[in-house]
Amino acid sequence: MFKAKEEMxxxxxxxxxxxxxxxxxxxxxxxxxPTELKKFHKKARKAFELRxxxxxxxxxxxxxxxxxxx
Length: 70
Hints:
Strand content: under 5%
Largest sheet: none
Shape: elongated
């Protein structure tokens, strides 16, 4: 899902953000300076990973609750 160590194009970052559930236009991303865009994408990736970890924990708790109710 993520390219490591390689420079991503604006289009690739846009597609990557869409996969993570963050919607923005390609035009808005193109307005950003390259260093700003890179930092923004890194923050979005961290936010996605944190959100995924929280959702995974909540799913596990829910599954345990349903399993314990039997």
